[in-house]
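REVIEWER CHECKLIST
Item 1: Sequence provided? yes
Item 2: Single chain? yes
Item 3: Sequence as submitted:
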Amino acid sequence: MAKGTLKDEVKTFIVQSLACFDTPSVVVEAVRKEFGATITRQSVEGYDPTKKAGSKLADKWRMLFEETRKTFLEDTASIAISHRAVRLRALQRMADKAETQGNMVLASSLLKQAAEEVGGAYTNRREITGKDGKDLPTPVSPVTIFQLPDNGRG
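Item 4: Structure as written out by the authors:
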């Protein structure tokens, strides 16, 4: 399907998908499944203002692209897998399926991954505390400063 014959609904879908960092190949497949339209990767690239092919993209689509990308980068809360509970549920489903199929190695691996997820192994946050959550003791300075005698100089 040529670029000019696409409906605005399809164009919007293409621009928003590209703004969310989907590759042209992924977008082509998604457009085929969603709208039943057959397009090429090259025509999809024409809707990406960050590419040379999209350098002459209409302002309407360029603004939509920029707004969508900004929202996408700022709002990770809308991405389900960014939440620990969603990841744990997915791991639970995979572990159950692996166990029913008798794949104990995979099930064990998934259980380990879930334990690491719960234990905070996949976060940057590290809490450093002393025994029972109390503050760490302040280190004693290893250097002792003495007052030197003036040796009669003054």
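Item 5: Key structural point noted by reviewer: The first helix runs from residue 8 to 19.
Item 6: Recommendation: ____
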